[in-house]
Each structure stands twice: as structure tokens, then as C-alpha cells.
């Protein structure tokens, strides 16, 4: 049985990972879990899966959780150090990184340094520190297995083929809930509407990123590092039906696509079982129902966040960390009602313009850049913490 730790087990990807594990009780054992503050759900998961160790980022909530599960043998830890302890836990063989946002960076590096198999759903660490993460993984002889449906699709299409055979990677995206709105309509859209994704059920931050197409931009940067390919060979294509999860075109003109139903349990299962494939309990695509597949280029005038991500990727060094941090702060400001959704890319662009680039940055310099960008957002736009 493969022993699995899940960082972010109470989030959307974490809960789906546990469903996959339940589908294959003879294949997997849950060793570690974590949450930020949702100790009610984490307690349920502890009693259902009997992990050895759990982390709660919020220290007060961790103390409360410890009291609730004192009748069990689970070890409760807290803070970023607690996440690292779960990531490094000796018995864990595979670590699923499903934490939202930049707080996943340190645990990701800890899991790599501990020699764990990495199943990565958290794209922000690669956006911030792709060079450092991929170099450390290579040094440890580890393969980073992507959980994002788009990157899983590319990983499956490449199937070990060299990057020199690739003409371009095509990342598909549904376009999100706001794809058909005009700029004028976008300027007044509420967070409730922006969170209503037509195809995927996700957390708040990633849902807003999907609505602005920043999520697709972050995926472009993630793909650059996962597959060691230059940014100019990575394209985005809007595909509202979300049946084709991404494609690879090779230099001989052949195009391979990975198709599947819209359910994150499929890429999660592949990452957990790799290199094996196991029968899925999920239904197959009914092509009689999916009669038309449509495609369109993204509109960078209405959704400039995608263009900013390409710009940050081409500049490189510390600029992707600035993009990521400024976007995170702007998203939370939008969800708190302090700004409009159309202000998110404006904030990101402002902060990128004010940044003094650090070349070939160390981890400490990346973390310092992340802090600077967050403070810059609040200062320039007078946002509340």
C-alpha cells in the first residue's frame, strides 16, 4: 500500500483525493493530513482515515483540534513548521500538495528534500520558484507528478518523449464564468457571480483566478517548469466544453490530446497510481451527448491577467513571484469588496512596474520579493489587511 500525506485535505482537491483513496482501499493508506482553519472537517477526516499526523496552520485552531481528538493516537502540529513536519513525515511515501496559494512553497521544498514522491496541485510554488524546485527535484531523482487536469493531460501526451520533439503545448481552459461578458459588464460583476464556475467546483481563490484567466497564466508558467519548455511554445486555447484537457503538437505535425469527463478525480488518480493505471469508477464520456467541441483564442483585452502572466514569465527571475503575490492580495481584496474584479490586473500591473528585478534569486530573495509585493499592493491601492 502506498502511504500518502495530503497537505490541504479539507480543500476541494484534498477532499477529492480522499475520495480516490476510498475507491482503492487496498492501494493507499492515509498517513498525514492538514488544514488551515477547518478543524471540523479535519476531525471527521481523522476519524475516518486514522492518519498518524495532522497539521493545522492556525495555532489556536490546532490547540482546539488537539482537544477534540485526544481520544485518538494522531499527532497534531501547527503553523508552517507543522506543514513541513507532515511533508517530511518518515512513513509518507507520496505527498499530495493541495494547499492554495504561496504558502505551499516551503512544504513543497521540504517534501522534495525528504525524497517523497510529489503529486502537485498547488501551482504557486512553481510560479514563484520554478528553477529552485525543479533543480532540487532533479538532484533528488524525483519526478513531479502534476494533478492540474491540464498538466496531467500534457504529461500523459508527452509520455516520456523529449522536449526537442515538441512544437507547442496547448493548454485548454473553459474560459470561466465571465467569458461572454463585455468589459462594461465585467466592471460591476459581484464575487458571488464570479465564483460560479460553469465546469469545476473549486476554492475561492482559484475560482476568481479562473474568472480573470490568471489561473491560465499561472498554468503557463507552471508548464514552463514542469516540462522544461520555453514560454514561446506554450499557448492557451479557450474550450468551454472542458472535454479536451490539453494537447501537445509535435514537430512532425502530429497532435495528441487527452480527453476525459470534467472530474478532478481522474488526474488525481493518475498521479497517485503512476506509472500504473487502475480501473476508474467514474463514467466514460458519452460522445452522443458531446456533439460539438468549440475553441477560441483568449481575449487579452477583456482578460489582461493572462497577458501579464506571459510578460512575467518572459522576464523571469523574481517577476513571477511579484505577479503571484500581487494577484493573491488583489483577489482577497476583491472577495472582501474593496475593489472591482477589473482592478485585479491593474493592481498586478502596477506592482510589476514598481519592482526592481533580482536575477537568479535565492529562496530567501524570492520570499522577500513575495513580502514586498504584498505590502506594495496595500500601499499603492490603500487596501486594508
Compact summary:
The protein has 385 residues and is an alpha/beta fold. Helix content is 46%, strand content 15%.
Task: Give the SSE layout.
Elements: E1 2-7, H1 12-23, E2 28-35, H2 39-49, E3 53-56, H3 59-68, E4 75-78, H4 79-88, E5 94-97, H5 105-113, E6 117-120, H6 124-140, E7 144-146, H7 149-158, E8 166-173, H8 183-186, H9 191-194, H10 204-212, H11 214-226, E9 234-238, E10 244-250, E11 255-259, H12 265-273, H13 304-315, H14 319-335, H15 343-354, H16 363-381
Parallel strand pairs: 1-2, 1-5, 2-3, 3-4, 5-6, 6-7, 8-9
Antiparallel strand pairs: 8-10, 10-11
Helix pairs in contact: 4-5, 5-6, 6-11, 6-14, 10-14, 11-13, 13-14, 13-15, 14-15, 14-16, 15-16
Describe, in plain words, how this protein is organized in 3D.
This protein folds into two domains: 146 residues, 3-Layer(aba) Sandwich (Rossmann fold), CATH 3.40.50.720; 144 residues, no CATH class. The chain is built from 16 helices and eleven strands. The longest helix has 19 residues.
Please state the average pLDDT score: 95
Tell me the CATH topology of the largest domain.
Rossmann fold
Give the amount of beta strand, in percent. 15-25%
Radius of gyration from CA coordinates: 20 Å
Provide the domain count: 2
User: Quaternary arrangement of the chains shown?
Assistant: single chain
CATH superfamily descriptor of the largest domain: NAD(P)-binding Rossmann-like Domain
Compute the separation of the termini in Å.
Answer: 45 Å
Please describe the biggest sheet, giving its number of strands, its sense, and whether it closes into a barrel.
7 strands, parallel
Q: What is the element string, with H for helices and E for strands? A: EHEHEHEHEHEHEHEHHHHEEEHHHHH
Major sheet: order of its strands? 4-3-2-1-5-6-7
Identify the CATH architecture of the largest domain: 3-Layer(aba) Sandwich
In helices, the fraction of residues equals 40-55%
CATH class of the largest domain: Alpha Beta
- Low-pLDDT segments: none
Instruction: Please report the number of helical segments.
Output: 16
Structural class assignment: alpha/beta
Based on CA inertia axes, which overall geometry fits? globular
* E-strand count: 11
